[in-house]
Specification:
Elements lengths: L1 H20 L14 E2 L3 E7 L10 E9 L4 E7 L20 H6 L7 E7 L1 E9 L9 E2 H4 L5 E8 L2 H4 L6 H11 L1 E8 L5
Antiparallel strand pairs: 1-2, 1-7, 2-3, 3-4, 4-5, 6-8, 8-9
């Protein structure tokens, strides 16, 4: 039962992120559309329409690990009026300041929804087309998307998560016995 709980939690987070992140886009001309990846959060723009009647499918996404609540949270802002019409690359001014958007707590990017709970840690690693690790990643300076994003989650089932020791050797031993690492590799289709 604990294994099923952990796998379900991991699968929900990784499948949703992979579906949206794999379609991320950037625009290096002004105004830029950026991809920013840090160690425990990432921000991107992707043509993923969550609703059938939307005038444009270009939306803003942020995924962030919340250590306080031991959760992995998805943030989404639907396309602004600036993205609807004949020039969908025109971007909302919020994209120009994506670092500020995601570093605030909680991020000022739409409403957040928890996609996985009982997450003890989250680490993102970004790889260029040569396979070199580059973390953090900012498309404003690197002029490209990463070719691959690796996400590692340290997950515990709900029952065991309620009894985690406060710290010290007991905490380390407890994690060793009951926590598991889930790794997801995501290939970005629009990386060059």
């Amino acid at each position: 039962e604990a294994t099923v709980d952990r796998q379900r939690n991991s699968r929900m987070a990784s499948e949703l992120l992979a579906r949206e992140l794999s379609q991320a886009v950037i625009e290096t001309n002004a105004p830029p559309i950026r991809f920013i990846g840090q160690a425990n959060w990432l921000y991107f723009v992707a043509p993923v329409a969550p609703f059938a009647n939307m005038g444009s499918d270009l939306g803003e996404f942020g995924y962030k690990y919340n250590a306080t609540s031991a959760s992995f949270v998805r943030y989404y802002a639907e396309p602004s009026e600036a993205n609807i019409g004949s020039a969908p690359k025109v971007c909302d001014v919020r994209r120009l300041d994506a670092l500020t958007i995601m570093q605030s707590d909680p991020p000022t990017l739409g409403s957040g929804s928890v996609v996985a709970e009982n997450i003890l840690s989250c680490d993102f690693t970004y790889y260029d087309k040569a396979g070199a690790s580059v973390t953090p990643w900012d498309s404003a300076t690197l002029n490209n998307l990463p070719s691959v994003v690796e996400m590692r989650l340290l997950i515990m089932d709900a029952q065991k998560a309620r009894s985690i020791p406060a710290g010290g050797p007991a905490y380390t031993n407890y994690l060793g016995r009951y926590a598991r690492t889930s790794t997801t590799i995501i290939h970005l289709q629009n990386a060059q």
